[in-house]
Amino acid sequence: MLKGKRILLIVAGGIAAFKALELIRRLRERGASVRCVLTDAGAKFVTPLSLQALSEDRVYSDMFSLTDESEMGHIQLSRDADLLVVAPATANILARMAGGLADDLAATVLLATDKPVLAAPAMNVRMWTHAATVANVETLRQRGIHFIGPNDGAMACNEFGPGRMSEPEEIADAIEGLLAPAERPLAGKRAVVTSGPTREAIDPVRYISNHSSGKQGHAIASALAALGADVTLVSGPVSIADPPGLTTVHVDSADQMLAACLAAGRIDIAVCAAAVADWKAARPAGSKIKKKAGMAPPSLELTPNPDILATLSKPGQQRPALVVGFAAETENLVANAIDKRQRKGCDWIVANDVSPAVGTFGGERNTVHLISASGVEDWPTLAKGEVAMRLAGRIALHFGRPPKAEAAE
Ligand SMILES: Cc1cc2nc3c(=O)[nH]c(=O)nc-3n(C[C@H](O)[C@H](O)[C@H](O)COP(=O)(O)O)c2cc1C
């Protein structure tokens, strides 16, 4: 897939630099040529000789080398590639990029390039979550720098959390996504999307429910199907049509919704966009509860519904590779959503404000925040279809194959 593509790989000084060697192998297996720039700190972790042997090209480190500058000037180096990849991207090089510094060959090349840049950050979790790094990454994202990772996991410094560099295979997939984007990047992936409200019977004619219209969940199901996924939409009672090109299963209650999700079998992606009632009647009446003159209204005892998101997120062989939940909140939106991601064990949370003043329920637009291990992304207010396409694009990128229009994160 990368035949004929030229990658300029910038290796900075992090412990993950050893993975750059494996990345070169993966990229060359896919047909790309790789040329390396090594920072001074990077050379403390991997030798130029290893990079040179694997890339079968010379390694560039010194901005003021007379021979390098006459044979391949730093400007030409920055242009003579289809993509610049910074892996590992240290906190330091991200700060230098954000600040526009040109204080060594790597930084100068990154400043002088007119080509897309992909960064694979790798650092201690505190460095990654430090306000300075967060601001630098945000600045770089806004300037169009693409990011892959970091992943959650144990780190060389004996700490745990986001900061581990993505695996070479994941980075190679992301590079392929940027340089050879796919028409149907989710082909071969199976997805379940829940949508709409649930209805919890009090008696045969009365129920507990909520205002969810199903518009956002249905749009996500359609967007995933448009990218080639085999989608089962598990829909609560809604008044909108079943989307074409996918399988819709109609349910009423949360119990039925969970059963329908589990009946879908092994899936790769679960997006829980339904507004599932938290509680149901503890003992729904078998016949209509009668109103009798002079009698006090009956009391309604509630019991919790099954937690669909937490159930699908449970670790195990059957767990989908990516579980996305929704958090509809009316206050402390982002803080509650971050907490929900941890409590439920899902990978991402799409948080949206459903205060009546915002008009999300039943409306056509949505303002969401995407919460993942990498942090919080604030998306602009978009039509629900656009939120769906953007989310589907991000899901495709997660699997290493972004669609044409969304060639990167
Ligand atoms: C053992 C060791 C491991 C390090 N690992 C990392 C790392 O994973 N990520 C990071 O951002 N900095 C790391 N550093 C700090 C960087 O090497 C340092 O900030 C350096 O200036 C980076 O320079 P560069 O970005 O030009 O390559 C490490 C330092 C040491 C001594």
Produce the secondary structure layout:
Elements: E1 6-11, H1 18-29, E2 33-38, H2 48-55, E3 59-60, H3 66-71, H4 74-79, E4 83-89, H5 91-99, H6 105-112, E5 117-121, H7 125-129, H8 131-142, E6 146-147, E7 151-154, E8 160-164, H9 168-179, E9 190-195, E10 200-201, E11 207-208, H10 215-226, E12 230-235, E13 247-250, H11 254-263, E14 269-272, E15 279-281, E16 302-304, H12 308-313, E17 322-329, H13 333-344, E18 348-353, E19 365-366, E20 368-372, E21 375-378, E22 382-383, H14 384-398
Parallel strand pairs: 1-2, 1-4, 2-3, 4-5, 5-6, 9-12, 9-14, 12-13, 14-17, 17-18
Antiparallel strand pairs: 7-8, 10-11, 15-16, 18-20, 19-22, 20-21
The structure holds flavin mononucleotide.
Residues 12-16, 39, 41-42, 90-93, 122-123, 127 line the site of flavin mononucleotide (FMN).
Task: Give the key terms.
about 400 residues; 14 helices; binds flavin mononucleotide; 6-stranded parallel beta sheet; disordered C terminus; Rossmann fold; 22 strands
Q: What separation lies between the terminal Cα atoms?
A: 20 Å
CATH H-level superfamily of the largest domain: CoaB-like
Low-confidence stretches: 405-409
Radius of gyration: 25 Å
